[in-house]
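User: Sequence recovery, please. Input:
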């Protein structure tokens, strides 16, 4: 019997990959993750436990997802994106990776992988990106922030911020439950769902400690 290959992919125990999905042998999928119809997970991608990759979604080479992420149908997550735990990517969302996109060089030759430097989108823990939103790299989406459907993000988004529009601008704050926070005065905001309180200081929000 041959000795085990130390460079072989991690054994995919308790992982669901449907027959029409295209998952590289070099991709690492955490326990309990699912990859659905026509989705593609490229070489070197690393998915944490409990992730769900929806129909037709694309996970680029070397992309990193934390635990319990949801990438909905037909979303495009291009390398080198990094997603924290519990990130939600809505249907048809695009995370770009090219600041100056061109198909050809100035001399007319077709651009190759050596002719440009990919840049990534970073999305921190618990954040949500609404359907058909576009995040133009390089940007960072803060923890528990929400990007509204159809928004185009071109600047970093603070923790707990609710942003919308083209280009996206902050229109409010959201709590960990995803509900828009209510202003109760003196820089204090309250979640209408959980009653959790948050404190705003100089444009930054933090959860009030108990």
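Assistant: Recovered sequence (210 residues):
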């Amino acid at each position: 019997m041959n000795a085990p290959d130390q460079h072989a992919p991690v054994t995919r125990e308790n992982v669901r990959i449907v027959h029409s999905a295209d998952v590289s042998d070099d991709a690492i999928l955490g326990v309990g993750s699912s990859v659905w119809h026509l989705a593609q997970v490229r070489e070197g991608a690393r998915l944490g436990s409990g992730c769900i990759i929806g129909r037709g979604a694309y996970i680029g080479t070397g992309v990193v997802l934390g635990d319990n992420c949801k990438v909905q149908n037909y979303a495009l997550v291009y390398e080198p994106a990094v997603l924290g735990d519990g990130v939600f990517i809505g249907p048809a969302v695009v995370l770009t990776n090219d600041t100056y996109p061109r198909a050809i060089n100035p001399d007319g030759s077709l651009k190759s992988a050596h002719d440009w430097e990919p840049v990534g989108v970073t999305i921190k823990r618990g954040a949500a990106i609404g359907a058909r939103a576009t995040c133009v790299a390089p940007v960072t989406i803060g923890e528990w922030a929400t990007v509204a459907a159809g928004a185009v993000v071109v600047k970093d988004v603070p923790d707990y911020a609710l942003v919308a529009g083209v280009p996206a601008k902050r229109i409010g704050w959201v709590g960990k439950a995803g509900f828009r926070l209510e202003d109760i005065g003196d820089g204090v905001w309250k979640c209408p769902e959980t009653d959790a309180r948050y404190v705003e200081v100089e444009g930054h929000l933090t959860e009030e400690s108990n």
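The first strand starts at residue 16 and ends at 17.
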